[in-house]
């Protein structure tokens, strides 16, 4: 196993990141049993941080835990994805509506910087930095909604949908379209077009769902 050089605050943080990476890279496929001893040996840690990591990943939808605490990689589910995105669409539209009056030049600069980070990460084929910048890009547009329950729920759902976001990027042309969507969102903000921005965000999410559905259909 290749050990990555990123620094982590704890062994559980390291185990969480590495197991998630193995799932997203396809080294651990949906439905695969996750043996704690085997993972601890591969990651060169004790079983305790691995157990913590599996619990965290279960909360984020990457892992399924059974009552006897055995673990498997969670399957991708169109039903689960649709239910999650149904709620995201409603909440994100509301957050944009509430945040939009406080948008300004500073936000545009931040979004343009994050868009540049995503472009650079893609050119270097570094998908973890891309996903981190993508997360920041979207959440920046919601964080001034003046309702911490609304924003916190959006963050939770956004993170839970990470597997579907990453999976969608495997669909040919999805990365190119996603990058274009982000630039169009920035332009809508510059033109002070709230309704167009909401339309772009909702369509962006819908295209993610469609890409995942196509990929799952092709695998069935």
Brief characterization of the structure:
Helix content is 70%, strand content 4%.
Radius of gyration: 18 Å
- Overall geometry comes to globular
Tell me about the biggest sheet?
3 strands, antiparallel
Report the count of strand segments. Answer: 3
What is the helix/strand order? HEHHEEHHHHHHH
Class of the largest domain in CATH? Mainly Alpha
Q: Structural class, from helix and strand content?
A: mainly alpha
Instruction: Examine the coordinates and then state which fold CATH places here, giving the name of the CATH topology of the largest domain.
Output: Four Helix Bundle (Hemerythrin (Met), subunit A)
| Terminal residue distance | 30 Å
Number of helices: 10
Task: Summarize the structure in words.
- The structure is a single chain.
- By secondary structure, the chain is mostly helical.
- The protein has two domains: 63 residues, Winged helix-like DNA-binding domain superfamily/Winged helix DNA-binding domain (Arc Repressor Mutant, subunit A); 142 residues, Up-down Bundle (Four Helix Bundle (Hemerythrin (Met), subunit A)).
- It has a three-stranded antiparallel sheet with strand order 1-3-2.
- Helix 5 packs antiparallel against helix 9.
């Amino acid at each position: 196993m290749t050990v990555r050089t990123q620094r982590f605050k704890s062994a559980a943080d390291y185990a969480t990141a590495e197991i998630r990476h193995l799932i997203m890279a396809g080294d651990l496929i949906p439905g695969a049993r996750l043996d704690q001893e085997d993972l601890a040996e591969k990651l060169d840690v004790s079983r305790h941080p691995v157990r913590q990591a599996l619990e965290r990943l279960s909360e984020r939808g990457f892992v399924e835990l059974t009552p006897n605490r055995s673990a498997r990689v969670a399957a991708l589910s169109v039903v689960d994805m649709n239910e999650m995105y149904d709620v995201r669409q409603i909440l994100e539209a509301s957050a944009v509506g509430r945040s939009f009056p406080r948008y300004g030049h500073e936000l545009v600069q931040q979004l343009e910087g994050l868009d540049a980070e995503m472009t650079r990460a893609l050119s270097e084929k570094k998908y973890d930095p891309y996903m981190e910048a993508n997360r920041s890009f979207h959440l920046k547009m919601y964080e001034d909604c003046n309702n911490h329950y609304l924003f916190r729920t959006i963050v939770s759902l956004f993170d839970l949908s990470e597997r579907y976001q990453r999976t969608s990027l495997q669909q040919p042309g999805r990365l190119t379209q996603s990058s274009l969507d982000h630039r169009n969102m920035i332009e809508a903000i510059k033109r002070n077009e709230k309704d167009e921005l909401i339309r772009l965000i909702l369509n962006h999410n819908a295209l993610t769902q469609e890409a995942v559905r196509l990929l799952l259909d092709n695998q069935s």
